[in-house]
From TrEMBL:
This is Outer membrane protein beta-barrel domain-containing protein. The lineage of its organism: Bacteria, Pseudomonadati, Bacteroidota, Sphingobacteriia, Sphingobacteriales. Residues 1-20 form the signal peptide. Keywords: Signal.
Amino acid sequence: MKKLCLTLSLCVGLLYGASAQIQKGNVMMGANITNLQFGLDKPNVFSLNINPKAAWFIQDGLALGGDVNFGLATAKGAGTSVSYGVGALGRFYGMTGANEVVKNSRFFGEATVGINGINPAGSGGSTNGLGFSFGPGWTYFVTRSIGLEALLKYNGIVGFGSSAYSHTLSLGVGFQIYLPGQSTAKKVERDMN
């Protein structure tokens, strides 16, 4: 019976959301499902990346977690390029100033560090090693539990390969799901009793 109550509490929490999506103890999961990327290094290509991420809010507005990146890029006559990455993620949600622009929205900053690589098709330009990225973003909360977001990031890789440094600017569009933490789920369960 307790498991049923806990499951119902979590469902209610998902449907109606916690009092704050970015509250300490909550969990964020989602992905950038499109990543419009304009290469600053040659060859300049158009690419599509998938970037799933998950993070836990260690305090209100500050989440730490991890992300994975996998991308394929093609350019006419150049073949297929592959990019990959896995690393740590930090995200900080700023003040509620975005609400002045659009209600139910927040600005945030995101940074990552980890192992990344880019291996372009054809001759040269591959870099594999320490990857890092940072940039501003904006989330619009469609519901209390789901946020659509846009994220502009500078991505760099320092390491080895035929090129010691590689960098790009990327515009990511994606979504995040905000799950209530254990303390929030217990509060919802207490409220139901």
